Every structure is written in structure tokens, then in C-alpha cells.
Amino acid sequence: MIAKENVNLILPGLYLGNARSSLDDEFLKKNNIRAVFNCTKDLPFHYSIKNKYRIPVDDNLKEEEIRNLELWSFESIYKLTREHKQGNVLVHCYAGMQRSAAVVAMYLIATYNMKHEQAISYIKHKRSIAFWPYTNFLKAIKGFERTYINEIVPKLIDEL
Length: 160
Description:
single chain, alpha/beta, 5 strands
């Protein structure tokens, strides 16, 4: 049985958790997890998960890793949006505090038009350990938000 702090429900069908939650057979089955977004370079996937996505980022506060998350963000958010529309999804990293929380924040920005402050606050409300003690990937989240608002949204509007 998985401990509550290992994983939290952020939105209906969207879970944010740690490495332990991603390998917990009971949790994955009970919650019908159809896709897992693994925000690490090396943690394994559970054998039962068919839709597996890796966002290869280290949480070492190096500028290149912060930029790396931002570079992976648009493809990841597109896939996360598609998977979440089809069923339940788990986004995780090692501790479920920084990398995966940043990806979920980007998802909230793109899907619910939240500002980065709102997205971070919302996630902290749902998962108290998220972004603790501070937001390591804030620069990546802000970069995603800026690009999304200034480049992606205008293209979407032009297509209407």
C-alpha cells in the first residue's frame, strides 16, 4: 500500500508523485494509470505501463538542466495533454517535489491559462512538499509561460 505523501491527486486523473509511487503495482492498478511521465534520466518504469514518457532532467540546479527542462517542455506538455484526455496519468521524479511538479505547473499554464504563480500555488496546495524549499525550476517554468503566451497562443489564434 502506498503512503499518501508518495503521490497526490492534482486534478481528476492527474497524479503527481515520487519514484515509489511509479513502481507501486497496487496504486497503478487501483487508479487505472494509463501513462507515466518519468522526469528523471535513469529511474525505471513499471513493467505494466504501456505509455511511457521520459523527460531526462537532473535536479542539480545546473543551468543546463534548467534549460533542458524548458527545451523538453513543449513536447512533454503536448503528450501529457493528449494522454490526460484519454485517461489517468502519473507525473513523477525521484521525490515528486521539483522536476515533476514543474512539468505539472507547465501543464496547468497551458491547459488552464494559469499564470506561473497560480500554478505553483495550486500544486503546493494539492501536494505540500512540492517545490520545497524553493522552486528549483522556476526559470524553466517562467520560460515556458513566456514562450507559450508570446508564441504558441498567437499561432493558435491565427489558426481559428
